[in-house]
Amino acid sequence: MNIMEPTIPTPERGQRGPVEHERREQIIRAADEHFSRYGYNKTTVADLAKAIGVSSAYVYRFFESKQAIGEAVCAMTLARIDGPMMEIATGPQSATDRLRSLYRWLMEEGMRLFFDERKLHEIVVVAVRDRWPPVLRHKQLILEAVRLVVADGRTSGEFERKTPLDEVARAITATTEPFAHPVLLEQKDPADLEAGMVAVSNLVLRSLAP
Amino acid sequence: MNIMEPTIPTPERGQRGPVEHERREQIIRAADEHFSRYGYNKTTVADLAKAIGVSSAYVYRFFESKQAIGEAVCAMTLARIDGPMMEIATGPQSATDRLRSLYRWLMEEGMRLFFDERKLHEIVVVAVRDRWPPVLRHKQLILEAVRLVVADGRTSGEFERKTPLDEVARAITATTEPFAHPVLLEQKDPADLEAGMVAVSNLVLRSLAP
């Protein structure tokens, strides 16, 4: 699985100024680095401005608040999960293998954030709690990835076709939460996660049998 | 479904003094009332002592800390969920109906805690985060309830018998989390919860078909 180069997302709620301005990108990269190292709460807009050699007022030309910068970093962090996830969902493997890979990818990326990038994990916990738009979009993308795979599996004859596709996609998406939700990952024994994830994906695949 | 009278649990980690002492029961009831009204964080051991007309030192003869009292209240709160849950699991209905009822019961009780008893919901959030023993026991009981129902459904011929029972029980238990975990309930749109819960229980029942 090759990790896609993180892309700078398009402007969001609370972001100002010329869309393609390279300063905007620079601010987001500085924020990503600062949040990764010091955490979202401990970083101020003044810290970010200082890091790239501009005034706070200048930063505010691009983002109306620290949260707006946080949302951009969160969107970039989730894009690192979502890009390969959509690659898996549209890949050449069987639908069965793709569904297994989706569960594994979501769990492994969730754990990577939690163990290797704890400070970015913190911002995602806040973002999920406060339903920031990048999180809602991430959830929507998981649902779309699952729907794509299930639809392909119906076409190929791997999966049953009687149950409404929307109902199945929604249910499967819910069953990824115990292995992908940042707060649940914090609370679980990592040794149990893998076995639980495999057990759930097996259960779901038995459910999809024609 | 009749709600069982909450029972005072047996002494736990951090609790002292004669087991059956009625003062112990009185402290737990006062704490339940105080935590429900003012929240766990804002209640002190001195508040509880005052409410029942004894000294703080006297309370410490029974509980070594406020958290020990919190654990007892948490155990009582969860017992209100677990008692009827085990009644459902061992009831006369078909295994299929019992499994549906388990999902519904866990979701409705989780929402009742969150909406009607917000202050007790707070203590459960802390208890889940910090893995207090009553929470671990509650999770173990959910697993046992699920295992019982699945085993009965295998005996009655409602469910398949090929997959290891432990694996199935574990997977089903994980799929209740999106509708029963206190933090996830906080973050979801109540209107979506019901439909999601029904979709997941349908998915699981298709998976159990012989």
Q: Characteristics of this structure?
A:
Tetracycline Repressor, domain 2; 210 residues; homodimer; 10 helices
CATH superfamily of the domain at 74-208 in chain A: Tetracycline Repressor, domain 2
Greatest chain-chain contact? A-B, 29 and 29 residues
CATH architecture of the domain at 74-208 in chain A: Orthogonal Bundle
Oligomer: homodimer
Q: What is the helix content of chain A?
A: over 70%
CATH names the topology of the domain at 74-208 in chain A as Tetracycline Repressor, domain 2
Radius of gyration of chain A: 19 Å
Largest sheet of chain A: none
Helix count of chain A equals 10
Structure class of chain A: mainly alpha
* Global mean pLDDT of chain A: 89
Task: State the total count of DSSP E strands of chain A.
Answer: 0
Written account of the structure:
Two copies of one chain form a homodimer. Chain A is built from ten helices and no strands. By secondary structure, chain A is mainly α. Chain A starts with 21 loop residues before the first helix and ends with a helix. Chain A binds chain B through residues 128-129, 131, 160, 163, 167-168, 170-172, 174-175, 177-179, 181, 183-184, 186-187, 195-196, 199-200, 202-204, 206-207, and chain B through 128-129, 131, 160, 163, 167-168, 170-172, 174-175, 177-179, 181, 183-184, 186-187, 195-196, 199-200, 202-204, 206-207.
